[in-house]
Each structure stands twice: as structure tokens, then as C-alpha cells.
Write a structure and sequence with these properties.
The structure is a homodimer of 185-residue chains. By secondary structure, chain A is an alpha+beta fold. Chain A is built from 4 helices and 12 strands; from the N terminus they run H-E-E-E-E-H-E-E-H-H-E-E-E-E-E-E. In chain A, a hairpin with a 7-residue loop joins strand 11 (167-173) and strand 12 (181-183). The first copy, chain A, is elongated. Strand 12 of chain A pairs antiparallel with strand 8 of chain B.
Chain lengths: 185, 185
């Protein structure tokens, strides 16, 4: 029997198992992917997000955002995001190339209702995220559903690297139904 | 006496202390920043890199790369990188917006000479990184100094978020000699 990292199928399953793990385990590195976008003036940007949804069948992962955050501004110009996870325990790097749809308003109200009251305060800070303030705590957190957004990230390709005794790298594309291929690491 | 995260100066010092920690401690999260670039066809990209140098005075951090990697291709078109570190133990996110200079050849030979023999194999894989291969291990690692590159990342701005009992966010710019200002988180 082979190890999971030795076959294209095994690596692919491990990617999704890891993403599911990120959903259920708040301490898992997959809980906090790095979310990279391109700014309107063409700078790369990266920040931590919290993984909120993972749909294996559809090949979609989801994160939440304040509608006034810089990543929304960037995504409106260039609706693409790269999600990056490095899991030291598995020596596994997962990279997702995604097309992003921004959902807000009534469409995401059911998700909003499911957010614990304290966590809702993350959506609706005033002044808007990234605005200068005179002192560190000169802001107010409001639980404000109108600024709550869900980013549905439709995966185009998955790039995986496993740094074991040997290094293995594979790529999976939506275009060939995730069949996968090996890449030079 | 205030906590380090309560003053602009304290947060700024902590950023650089954390970067230094990443250099000396192989297990520290700052050892492995996420390195985001923009691909030639305008997709965001992100991958793990290893922090190799950190110059507080000059405001420059450095990483190594294979000259044939996709990040080099991207940087030749758009010489900008965002470096991202999330340190769970400190609840600290560090984001560096940088302009990147690619150094290779004789200029970086002294650095190459300092790399342990086994690690040198990371620079010179054949086929080049990211090329399809028939099977997982159908590649050869060569210690090949001609494909060794050093990416000098000149920091333009530092964005820091501390997720304590209160959330604090600050930004520091080269343009005002890193004086710093508070931002809404």
C-alpha cells in the first residue's frame, strides 16, 4: 500500500481532507489561509482569512469579509484570488487559484444569522478597515449585516507540494476534472 | 509601562524582532513567509518561501529562488512582492509591501558558497520547477549555481495587525521614515 503523498489521487484527497479539517478545527493551519489578490494599482496583496466553507463537489471554498475592506476593492477590479496554506505537520503546501464571486445583502442573510453575536462585530467596523485613526482604539465595531460579504472562491487549479524525504508536486485542474499531473518541484 | 502592541514604536520593534527570529529559528512562522506576486497574465500567486536575510537599517528582507521558478517569471514582469507572516503565538500578522530586485550570477556567489551542500540542490532542479513530469520523482536535483537567485525585497510599507483582547492595526511607510500610523482594523 502506498502513502497518501505517493499517488495523484492520494494527494488530491489529502487536499480536501485538509480543507475540511480547517473548517472543523480552529487551531489547524488550514483554518487560516493566506488570501492573495491584485490591488487596483497592480500590487500583490496578501492577508490572513478564516476558511468558512469548503464544497468538495463544486470545488469551491468560501471566506467572509467586510464589504469595505481592501480585498473587496481589489476583487471588484480583478476577481481572482490565490489561497495558500502551509501545514508544517504534514509538510504540505496547498495553493488554490480561484475566481471569486462576492455575495452580500439578502443572499447571505441566512449565513449572517448563523454567526455568533460576538463574531458579527467583525463585519461593520467604523471607520472602514484600513482607514487612518488618531489612536489605536479609535474605532467602533458594529454588527452590521449590510457590510457582510461572502467570497465564493471557485477553484481553477490546485497546486500541491509535499516536502517529504522526496519532494513531490502535483497540479489538478477543473478543466480536466481534477485528474492531476506531476510537476517538477 | 505599556505592552509592546500598545504603541506604534513597540509594534514596529516587534515586527523586526519577529523577522530576526525567523532568521535564527527554523521552527518560527516568520521563517516561512508567504510570498505573493502577480503573474504575467495578471493572476495573484502565493507560495511559501524561506526567509534568508533581514536588514533592519535598510528595510530589506531577502529570500532565495531558483532562477527558472514561476515567481521569477512574474517578478520580471511586475517586480513587486507582498510578504505575509501570521504568527499564532503572538496573534500577529505582518504584511510587507516590497519592490524586488533579482540578483544572480557572480554577485551572489559568496552567498551560494555559504549554503550547505545538501541545500544547494534546491537550486537547479531539472526539468525546471513547475514543468510536467511523467512520474512524481522524474526529476534530478543539481547543485547548480547559475540558477541560484537572491530576491532583495525593499520594503515600501509594513502593515501590522495584533489580534489581542482589542485589535490593533498599524502601518509604517518608508516615505515617512517608518513613523507609523494607526489604522482601523
Amino acid at each position: 500500500m502506498s502513502n497518501w503523498f505517493e499517488t495523484l489521487e492520494g494527494l488530491h484527497i489529502q487536499v480536501w481532507d485538509t480543507l475540511i479539517q480547517g473548517l472543523v478545527d480552529a487551531g489547524h493551519p488550514a483554518r487560516r489561509p493566506t488570501f492573495a489578490t491584485v490591488s487596483p494599482d497592480n500590487w500583490p496583496e496578501a492577508r490572513t482569512v478564516v476558511l468558512r466553507g469548503s464544497d468538495t463537489e463544486a470545488g469551491i471554498v468560501s471566506v467572509y469579509s467586510d464589504l469595505h475592506s481592501d480585498k473587496i476593492r481589489s476583487l471588484k477590479k480583478n476577481p481572482r484570488a490565490a489561497l495558500h496554506i502551509w501545514d508544517p505537520a504534514q509538510a504540505l503546501q496547498i495553493r488554490l487559484k480561484t475566481e471569486v464571486t462576492i455575495a452580500s445583502g439578502p443572499a447571505v442573510r441566512p449565513l449572517w444569522e448563523n454567526i455568533p453575536a460576538q463574531s458579527r462585530q467583525s463585519y461593520g467596523v467604523s471607520p472602514a478597515p484600513g482607514r487612518p485613526i488618531p489612536d489605536a482604539l479609535d474605532y467602533i465595531k458594529n454588527a452590521y449585516p449590510d457590510t457582510f460579504a461572502v467570497l465564493h472562491c471557485r477553484i481553477i487549479t490546485i497546486d500541491v507540494v509535499h516536502l517529504g524525504d522526496d519532494h513531490r508536486r502535483a497540479s489538478y485542474s477543473r478543466s480536466d476534472d481534477w485528474a492531476g499531473k506531476w510537476l517538477s518541484p
